[in-house]
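Input C-alpha cells:
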C-alpha cells in the first residue's frame, strides 16, 4: 500500500511538472519578448500584403526571434485582416503585443516635411522615400494635364500647390489621397486675408508663389525677404525685366553654378528673366511660407537693383540707380575672382 502511494505521488509530481512546463512554454509563447536585438525600428506592411506576406516580412527583416510562435499566436488571435502601414517596433514586445498592434492597425504617422525642392522629379523621389507612393507614378501625376486642370494648375506651376510645412500622414496614403490632401492644405493656406493681400498688390496666388520662389533663391536671410521682394515688385510695376540670376540657373538646370556669366544670359528659355519680361511660367523652387508672406507684405522702397555683398555674408547691397549698382556689382565680381570662383 505504501509503495502504491509513493508511486501515485511520483506520477502526480511528474504530471505537475509537465503541466508547469507546458504552462510556462505557453506563457512564454504569448507574453515573452520575441523581438530581436537587431530589429529595425519600424515594420512596413504594404497595401497588397497578405498574412503570409507579413510572416515573410518579419522573418526577412529579422524583426522577431521565433517566427513559428508568432504565426501560431497570430492565427489563434484571429489576425486575418491585414492592415497596411508603418508600425513602430519596441524592444521587449511579445507576440501578443505585436499582433494586437497589427490587428488594430495602430500605425505610426509619418511627419512629412519639404521645402525649397527645385524639380518635380526630386520631389517625387523624396515622397517615394517617405510614403508607400511609387515615385514614377507620382511624377506622372504631376505632369498629367487632365488631373492638373481639375486642381487649377498646369505642369509648370503645380509646385505652387505644395505649401511647405510639416504634415502628418500615414505611410500607406495613396498618391490620389496625398494630392487631394495637399490641395486642401493649399485652400486653407490661401485664406481670405492672403487672397486680399495678393489682390491688393495685383498678383494672383500662383503669381505670388512664382515670385516668392525667386525671392527664396535670392534672399539667404529671412530679414531681407521683404526688401528683395520689393525690388522685384518695383521692376514688375515699371515694366522692367526681373533679371534674376536664379532663373537663369534654373533654366540651365545646373544648380552648381555660383557665378552667372554673360554667355549664360543668352540661353533661350521662358525661365530666363534676362530674356523675357514678367514672371516665368512656374516657380523655380517650392517657395517657403516666409517668402510667400514676404511678397504679400513686400517692403515699399525705391530700390530697383541689388547685389550680394562682397563679404559673402549672405546679405545684399541695394541701389536705386544703375551707377551705385554697378559699383556694388564690381566689388562682388572682384571678390568672386579673388576666391577663384569663375563659374
Amino acid at each position: 500500500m505504501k509503495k502504491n502511494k509513493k508511486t501515485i505521488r511520483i506520477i502526480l509530481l511528474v504530471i505537475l511538472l509537465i503541466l508547469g512546463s507546458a504552462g510556462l512554454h505557453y506563457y512564454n509563447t504569448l507574453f515573452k519578448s520575441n523581438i530581436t536585438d537587431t530589429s529595425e525600428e519600424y515594420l512596413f506592411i504594404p497595401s497588397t500584403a497578405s498574412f503570409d506576406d507579413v510572416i515573410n516580412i518579419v522573418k526577412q527583416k529579422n524583426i522577431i526571434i521565433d517566427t513559428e510562435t508568432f504565426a501560431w499566436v497570430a492565427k489563434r488571435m484571429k489576425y486575418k485582416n491585414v492592415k497596411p502601414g508603418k508600425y513602430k517596433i519596441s524592444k521587449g514586445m511579445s507576440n501578443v503585443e505585436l499582433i494586437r498592434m497589427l490587428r488594430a492597425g495602430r500605425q505610426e504617422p509619418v511627419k512629412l516635411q519639404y521645402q525649397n525642392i527645385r524639380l518635380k522629379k526630386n520631389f517625387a523621389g523624396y515622397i517615394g522615400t517617405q510614403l508607400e507612393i511609387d515615385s514614377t507614378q507620382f511624377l506622372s501625376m504631376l505632369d498629367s494635364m487632365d488631373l492638373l486642370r481639375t486642381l487649377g494648375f498646369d505642369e509648370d506651376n503645380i509646385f505652387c500647390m505644395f505649401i511647405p510645412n510639416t504634415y502628418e500622414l500615414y505611410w500607406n496614403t495613396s498618391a490620389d489621397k496625398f494630392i487631394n490632401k495637399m490641395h486642401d492644405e493649399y485652400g486653407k493656406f490661401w485664406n481670405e486675408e492672403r487672397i486680399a493681400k495678393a489682390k491688393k498688390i495685383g498678383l494672383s496666388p500662383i503669381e505670388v508663389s512664382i515670385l516668392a520662389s525667386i525671392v527664396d533663391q535670392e534672399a539667404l536671410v529671412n530679414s531681407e525677404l521683404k526688401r528683395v521682394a520689393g525690388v522685384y515688385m518695383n521692376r514688375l510695376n515699371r515694366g522692367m525685366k526681373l533679371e534674376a540670376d536664379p532663373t537663369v540657373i534654373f533654366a540651365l538646370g545646373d544648380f552648381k553654378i555660383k557665378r552667372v556669366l554673360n554667355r549664360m544670359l543668352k540661353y533661350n528659355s521662358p525661365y530666363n528673366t534676362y530674356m523675357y519680361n514678367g514672371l516665368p511660367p512656374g516657380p523655380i523652387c517650392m517657395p517657403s511660407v516666409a517668402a510667400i508672406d514676404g511678397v504679400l507684405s513686400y517692403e515699399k522702397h525705391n530700390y530697383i537693383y541689388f547685389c550680394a555683398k562682397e563679404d559673402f555674408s549672405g546679405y545684399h547691397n541695394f541701389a536705386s540707380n544703375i551707377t551705385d549698382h554697378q559699383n556694388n556689382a564690381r566689388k562682388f565680381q572682384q571678390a568672386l575672382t579673388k576666391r577663384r570662383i569663375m563659374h
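The CA atoms of residues 259 and 337 lie 10 Å apart. Residues 19-28 have pLDDT under 50 and may be disordered.
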